[in-house]
Specification:
about 350 residues, about 65% helix, elongated, about 0% strand, mainly alpha
Amino acid sequence: ISGKEGLQAANASDYSIAQFAYLNRLLFVHGAWNYMRLSKLIIYSFYKNLCLYFIEFWFAMVNGFSGQILFDRWTIALYNVSFTALPPFSLGLFERTCKASNMLRFPLLYKPSQDGDYFNAKVFWQAMGNAIFHSFLLYWFPVWAMQQDVGISDGKAGDLLVVGNMVYTYVVVTVCLKAALMSDSWTRLSHISIWGSIIAWFLCFMIYSNFWPVIPLGPDMLGQERYVLGSGVFWMGLFLIPTTCLIRDVAWKALERTCFKTLLMKVQELEKARLDPESVILEAQKKTAQLIGERDGLLEHAPPAAAARPGEPGTEQHGYAFSQEEHGIVPQSELVRAYDSTKTKPEGL
């Protein structure tokens, strides 16, 4: 858009583009990618927080709702800041569905974004239910494992923080692996964000357990790494508990990509095999055209709607912003043509 009025509109707008030719890539590539990234980012952020903090509800059922917390206060504070901060960045910045060249060639790949398939009430509440289910497993399985026998190599019984640090470790590992399951494209930064977050927690846990009394911080955590990392129950649970939590997610993803493939999944597989997805797109376009033809055929045989008389309910005219024809007394097109941009505008308005 060029000209005096065009520049004024661009300065007053939130977003502007220099040429309409840029709109194609902006919509079909970056628009679809950003919608998918934001959807996954929001769902994952709610998921990982519900996984950790709903555990306090399960623990409250044991301690009589006394207000006692299961985890150390600094580990809770660093959960979103350090140990699970990178996976959301990976999903929100580097995730993509298909290659940009295929997104431009086949506008049909934009349809999931247009239909809101990535973020809606059904998808959101399914993720929240899954998070509550995972929190149940992440809390009760370690508690039941430590309930009967002594789980520490020197024969001592673990205290509250021993169980809390075990549960916290399982939570970090599970939510990071969940981010891996949600990823459709893997980059070096994806690997760093997921595996690096898990390693960062283990390193921080070993260092934090030896702060006191050199640094007056976390006296209750002193020696915790010797009890937790020296427990065979912990290492067995480190493999079994995250696996138990995510086995249902892995099975559903395998079933979906085997029996209920979407168009995007088919294109992703062809891109992985370095094949041209044109045949799959054409087949999907034929099915879409067939459905549209069937719908138009049904509409042709539908009885005509009865015309309402003036003054009857339902005959009121309503206008919409930026509409070219509002069915009013003066059409919008005449208003636009009547505006003279050569005259000086009045001041003080």
